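Dear colleagues,

As part of the handover before I leave the project, I'm documenting each prediction I ran so the next person doesn't have to rerun anything. This entry is a single chain, and its sequence is reproduced below.
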Amino acid sequence: MPSDTSSGNGVGGVVAPALEALAARLDAFHSAVATAEEELRSFVAHRRGASEYRAEQALVELGPFAVGKIAPDRFASILLDLEELTGEAEQVLDRAEYILSAFATERDMHVVTVEPGGDLRDAVREAFTQMGQVFGAARAVELARAGLFDPDQHNRFLSALPFRKWNRAERQLAPPLVVELDPDDLLPTGLGEFLDGQVKIVLVVRGMTTPAPLARLITPGTYVVQTADPADLTGLAVSPHPGIALLFDQERSEQARFLHDPEAGASPWERLTIRHLPDRPEVGRGRRPPRWLEELEHLEMLARRPSTDTLPGTASALAGEAGTAPAQTAPVDQLAAWLLSQTNVGGG
């Protein structure tokens, strides 16, 4: 459901800065919708104007004998090569224009509130389905202009279009989404299906979460950030990759802050910057550690820089035997040589 972003206290005061950080993506989406709506309006006006003009011209050329016997608009369409719009097609274009004009300026749709106890994934899915009306309307227009619109098959384009039905170009233009929710409802792993194209999702949480709930969403091509500073969302907005952010309502020592940028390198430790990790809790004997410890362990594993040490006895031994520097020996050859040196092939 749309959220009131005017509140200055609590999480409401964080939503406005989040939207401001996403302004470039917001403007790009609304600009594209407004342009499409203007072009559609011009197309319909031109076709209707041309049809009326050419019908009058045909009536003059046919003369009085054709009055009541020949439909001038049909005659003009046939002889003057006018691309006629059927009444059904005009209704489709009118409906599509209405949808596009509504979305061209509407900004509340970018903010969704998950009611306490609600489902985060369902809320995001419903929001994208409703936003998909824009892409559905565009498809309906193309079908109507080509004379291919079949109400039985294509009327669904004029109501809503689920995210799973969006094509590649539509996902690249995906509008950003800011989601407000309580910590108990923060189950972000279900959002992985939406992280495609240039989808940008910002989760704004009312209260303290587990240390690193977004850690499981880190993949090589996904921008992921946990922060209490809305300025850190700028990178998310301009990234050419899909991305998700967790924006805390305030900075807490119990919550990890990190950034995973796919553009920063080829290896996980190059892409991941950990700005803060909370202390690990002491777990008494016989007690199971909390599951969220896995989040921290996953982060630490990804950020761990590989050791520069070579396998035992490889580089130095090879250098001494061959008289060459270790860098001149291929790693696969080093590994094979070391394995052979550890194997008693003579049986003694």
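The chain has a mean pLDDT of 79. Residues 23-62 form the longest helix (40 residues).

All the best with the project,
I.
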